[in-house]
């Protein structure tokens, strides 16, 4: 056979082989991440870090308090500056008495601990544990809020707070002097 014919057939065969191998590689499935088996009842969450300022948190808390206190005789609102102050009135001795509580916030396991620094009714400073015990016995609070009169604190259990879409929130840092308030928002996957 002629050497040019032989070279032509070798080149044709090589091109055919290259096209065949390339097509085969193209059509083969690519590398995929391993599929995780979900445990029964478990959910995955997308986590978002949320940072905000004192004014925004003040608005959010007051809106929540307004919604929760609809059927309560106790009216109160919050102001966040270099500390947290709760203003309100409580019914005692047949009268509405003005009340101001000052708190020092901290974060513990994603929940917020509000340690009472001072408490006054009218212009009189009163024993914190006594008034907290009275408030706890006389008024209904959401299950996420627990008054601990013995330790002079109010605990806000964010891990029990039910958001409509199944999201959860955990406090991360509260530094009022620096104006830093941050939390992690856990959004369940798959999205609904």
- Terminal-residue CA separation: 72 Å
Please give the domain count.
1
Q: Give the number of helices.
A: 3
Average pLDDT value? 83
Gyration radius from CA atoms, angstroms: 32 Å
Beta-strand fraction estimate:
35-45%
Main sheet characteristics: 7 strands, antiparallel
Question: How many E strands?
Answer: 10
Quick one: overall form? Answer: rod-shaped
Q: List SSEs in N-to-C order.
A: HEHEEEEEHEEEE
Oligomer, anyone?
single chain
Percent helix among the residues? 25-40%
Poorly predicted runs are: none
Structure class? alpha+beta
Pfam family, one: DUF2140
Protein name: DUF2140 domain-containing protein
Organism: Aeribacillus pallidus
Transmembrane segments: 6-27
What does this structure look like?
The protein has 192 residues and is of the alpha+beta class. It has one domain (44-187). It has helices at 3-27, 54-68, 128-138, and strands at residues 44-52, 75-80, 84-92, 95-108, 111-121, 124-125, 145-148, 153-156, 168-175, 180-189. The termini are far apart. The mean pLDDT is 83.
Keywords:
alpha+beta; 3 helices; rod-shaped; 192 residues
Describe the structure in brief.
With 192 residues, this protein is an alpha+beta fold. It is built from three helices and ten strands. It has one domain (44-187).
List strands and helices in order, with pairings:
Elements: H1 3-27, E1 44-52, H2 54-68, E2 75-80, E3 84-92, E4 95-108, E5 111-121, E6 124-125, H3 128-138, E7 145-148, E8 153-156, E9 168-175, E10 180-189
Antiparallel strand pairs: 1-10, 2-3, 3-4, 4-5, 5-6, 5-8, 7-8, 9-10
């Amino acid at each position: 056979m002629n050497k040019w014919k032989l070279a032509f057939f070798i080149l044709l065969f090589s091109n055919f082989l290259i096209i065949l191998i390339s097509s085969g590689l193209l059509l083969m499935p690519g590398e995929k991440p391993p599929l995780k088996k979900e445990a029964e009842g478990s959910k995955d969450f997308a986590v978002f870090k949320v940072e905000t300022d004192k004014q925004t948190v003040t608005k959010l808390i007051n809106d929540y308090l307004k919604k929760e206190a609809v059927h309560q005789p106790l009216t109160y609102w919050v102001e966040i500056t270099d500390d947290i102050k709760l203003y309100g009135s409580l019914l005692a001795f047949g009268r509405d008495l003005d009340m101001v509580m000052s708190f020092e916030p901290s974060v513990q396991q994603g929940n917020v601990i509000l340690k009472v620094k001072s408490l006054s009714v009218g212009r009189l400073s009163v024993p914190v544990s006594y008034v907290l015990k009275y408030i706890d016995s006389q008024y209904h609070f959401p299950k996420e809020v627990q008054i601990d009169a013995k330790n002079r604190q109010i605990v806000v259990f964010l891990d029990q707070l039910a958001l409509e879409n199944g999201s959860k929130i955990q406090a991360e840092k509260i530094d009022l002097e620096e104006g830093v308030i941050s939390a992690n928002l856990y959004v369940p996957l798959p999205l609904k």
